[in-house]
Amino acid sequence: MISKFVNKIGNFVDGDVKIKKRENSHDIIIELQNVWKTYIMGEVKVHALRGLNLQVRKGEFLAVMGPSGSGKSTFMNMVGCLDIPSKGKIVLDGKDISLMTESDLAQVRGKKIGFIFQKFNLLNTMTAKENVMLPLTFQGMPQAKREELSKKFLEQVGLTNRLDHTPNELSGGQQQRVAIARALANSPEVILADEPTGNLDSQSGQSVLEFLRKLNKDMGTTIILVTHDEKIAKQAQRIVYLKDGLIVDSLDFDTSKLMQIQEEQEKNSQNNKLKINGKSRKNWIE
What we know:
single chain, Rossmann fold, six-stranded mixed β-sheet
């Protein structure tokens, strides 16, 4: 692992990995312009977002970090068309969603956005196949086509032999893979992943991250991932750090170079272990 990657978001301390400068681009899929979200709680106004500005490029893998109460969940609700801002503008693929009706927002959610949640949010009375078919049902897709796509996406996440199992019959990792297949069902342009590894063991969590990276690299799907874990965040192409409803820091980096260094360091670590367990063990002890 890269032990000296970031001491604090924005402080890059590892040698030859260079921070990229942001480039102006017309290929923006999501843009937040001076977005505020204020909740009225009795006589108190709580500003969850305070004039947030952010652009997300098509095909980008973005990680969002921040402490509890920083506005991460509110940010995801805004981008995911689950809520509208109190003030400001949110543009998704050229359309201002802050002006849409609830019916219009539901259509956008169904066609352009896939959700992956920490707690999976699967229906326990439905099989894996039926859970994946559910969003396709809301889009009015014929039954035969729904079944075909459901099987296809469950196969892609390695669950061909679990099609007819209910969530209670699946492990946590398998349930999250069903959730990923469901998120992919409508071929969304954007995947929103809210702490997708939070309820998984390290091996299952890494498997989920590898699938998201592959989806981003091979299919060009835009990934926005919310996490508390810096080790997870640094696998994205960019990290933004939220505090008190504002972006207080942003870090861009070259993931290909980063992964190369990580692989070399892990390889060196394995070689050192082999030396310790082999002929040089005596010298090492001495």
